[in-house]
Design brief:
Helix 1 packs across helix 2. With 223 residues, the protein is of the alpha/beta class. The chain has a 7-stranded mixed sheet with strand order 3-2-1-4-5-7-6, with helices on both faces.
Length: 223
């Protein structure tokens, strides 16, 4: 029987060298696709997303082109049922979600630090009066939200850089009964945040996203 060390060396060899690497990566992608499909189909709540998910993988689309958030299907459905034109949203990190939110709420404030990405998304936003897309330096990025009154935003959505620091600045700006939403919240950097917000009502969306093979976690905290 191979030792764990020998197995690890074999895996590294397969990953690094020639056609074997292609076989490994293809096999891994197929495995993940089968796993994701199984997870969607075994849950009565998520089986409805199976065909759209497979279609997204074959479409060649992306979140900006299709103007959708890069979130799990269930998280997007929750947002669709919750949002209305009287709401205000702040986003750390802009993209397809910014375009999507700006069609559904009364005010979207999004902040970005990457100049090229900001130019690209700004061109798609155009003259939309419901959306303000700010370009800030990395040093200013987390602090932009401090310019707004406490209890101002219905949702603060974090899907950009310096996420842990962004949370610290965001908490006072969320309305009572409002929400903090963090994508890819399974990352270790959020363990401390989850502990800090343990008294907030929590909802976790777990599943695949459009266009990509993988399973992801988005967490929603209610103030």
């Amino acid at each position: 029987m191979q030792s764990a060390s020998s197995q690890n060396k074999l895996i590294l060899f397969i990953r690094r060298y020639g056609p074997l690497r292609i076989v490994y990566r293809t096999s891994l992608s197929v495995y993940r696709l089968i796993r994701n499909s199984f997870l969607l189909c075994k849950n009565p709540k998520t089986i409805q997303y199976f065909i759209p998910y497979i279609g997204s993988l074959l479409s060649g689309g992306n979140t900006v082109k299709d103007k959708v958030p890069w979130l799990s299907y269930e998280a997007i459905d929750w947002l669709n049922g919750y949002l209305n034109k009287n709401m205000k949203i702040f986003e750390f990190g802009g993209g397809g979600s910014t375009l999507w939110f700006s069609q559904r709420v009364g005010e979207v404030i999004a902040v970005e630090h990457d100049l090229d990405w900001h130019k690209y998304i700004s061109g798609l936003i155009g003259d939309n009066p419901f959306c303000k897309y700010l370009l800030k330096s990395p040093e200013e990025y987390c602090e932009v939200i401090d310019e707004y009154p406490d209890n101002y935003f219905d949702i603060v959505f974090i899907d950009g850089d310096q996420r842990k620091e962004c949370v610290q600045h965001a908490l006072l700006k969320i309305k009572p009964q409002g929400y903090l939403m963090i994508d890819d919240s399974k990352e270790p950097q959020f363990y401390e945040i989850k502990e800090k917000l343990k008294n907030w009502q929590t909802k976790v969306f777990f599943g695949p996203k459009r266009y990509k093979i993988g399973i992801y976690e988005t967490t929603l905290w209610k103030k």
